[in-house]
Design brief:
The chain is an all-alpha fold. Helix content is 60%, strand content 0%. It contains three helices and no strands.
Length: 45
């Protein structure tokens, strides 16, 4: 049986986290889009 890939939470947040998104114009736009749909911005858990 293959081992399950363990993703690092820190690495993931550094790539796609809220603060990272807020740094760029495109990132801010994507957050704005998600807010418009009423999507959760931060993952649960």
């Amino acid at each position: 049986m293959k081992t399950k890939i363990r993703n690092s939470k820190r690495k993931r947040l550094k790539r796609t986290g809220f603060r990272t998104r807020m740094k760029t114009k495109a990132g801010r736009a994507s957050i704005k889009r998600r807010r418009r749909i009423g999507r959760r911005l931060t993952p649960k858990g």
